[in-house]
Amino acid sequence: MIVPIGAGSVSDLVVRVVADRMAKSLGQPIIIENVSGADGSIGAGRAARATPNGYTILFGFASAVVLNAAFYSLRYDVLKDFAPISPVTTYSWVLFARKTMPANDLNELIAWLKANPNKASAGISTAGYRLLNVVFQNETGTRYTLVPYRGTPPMLQDLLAGNIDLWFGSADQLPLVRAGSIKAYAVTGEMRLMAAADIPTFDEMRLPAVGTPSWNGLFAPSGTPKDVISKLNVAVVDALSDLAVQSRLADISYQVFPREQQTPEALAALQKADAKKWWPIIKASGIKAE
């Protein structure tokens, strides 16, 4: 199972929780291979070129299998070179800040950023991160520097150390907020997080546009036989129906897709819908990958 990000992030943990349970259904181990670089396109490209026999699959994030097509000249087609297996989870982004940031809520943060244009910095590690920050800046009329990283751990360490000011991160870092190590201002999605009911959504703060596709799914190379896709789908569905898996994912604020959406067709529709929505936005904004 190719994972197009570095090891050690919460997303990597999600992969391993699901893969371990899938291995039981398939009756054989699943080897995780982290292949990071170019916002996930290196790993995704390797998966697209793999022999389509079901023995190499991709744990694909929306940034790697949708957004990258608008950022890069890829050697593969994100909509044609993969055979969808099933959506896996959705999640929300949280806008975090260093603990010494002189703002107590989102409105104060926006006011501070406007008063200090291009003086703040935010960590990014994928095209999705870049898009999320650019949308936030455009919606709030703010400007700050985006600092590229190869993965989550170094970004988080720099945020804790105060070397960067902002970071759109995953909700599993909320314990650091409760410990007073970092601040949190708002979350993406339609509802507040159960683990942080005191943090408002961007929708509540009248910034409904802030957000990017926040999902992941399993893909095989295009041309993989349908019976193989079906067998892999059954293994995913079995894994996601396991209460222990659901509980572990809920602990880190990842939500399993409803059972009726755990199909190849649903993942293909999700991928195409997000491409239709986000590709024009990315191209119109002039955002460039770095």
Structure write-up:
The chain has ten helices and eleven strands. The protein is 42% helix and 18% strand. The protein has 290 residues and is of the alpha/beta class. The chain has helices spanning 10-26, 41-48, 62-71, 106-115, 127-140, 152-161, 174-178, 226-241, 243-251, 264-285; strands at residues 2-3, 33-34, 58-61, 82-91, 93-98, 121-124, 145-148, 166-170, 182-187, 215-221, 254-256. The chain folds into two domains: 2-91 and 214-285, D-Maltodextrin-Binding Protein, domain 2 (3-Layer(aba) Sandwich); 93-187, D-Maltodextrin-Binding Protein, domain 2.
Number of helices: 10
Kindly, what is the distance between the CA atoms of the first and last residues, rounded to a whole number of angstroms?
Answer: 26 Å
Share in helix: 40-55%
Q: What is the name of the CATH superfamily of the largest domain?
A: Bordetella uptake gene, domain 1
What is the CATH C level class of the largest domain, in words?
Alpha Beta
Number of domains as seen in the coordinates:
2
Q: Segments where pLDDT lies below 50 for 5+ residues?
A: none
CATH topology of the largest domain, by name, is D-Maltodextrin-Binding Protein, domain 2
Q: What is the ordering of alpha helices and beta strands? A: EHEHEHEEHEHEHEHEEHHEH
Main beta-sheet annotation = 5 strands, mixed
Shape: globular
Strand order of the largest sheet: 7-6-8-5-9
Number of β-strand runs = 11
Please state the oligomeric state of the protein chains shown. single chain
- Rg estimate, integer Å: 19 Å
Structural class: alpha/beta
User: Which CATH architecture of the largest domain would you pick?
Assistant: 3-Layer(aba) Sandwich
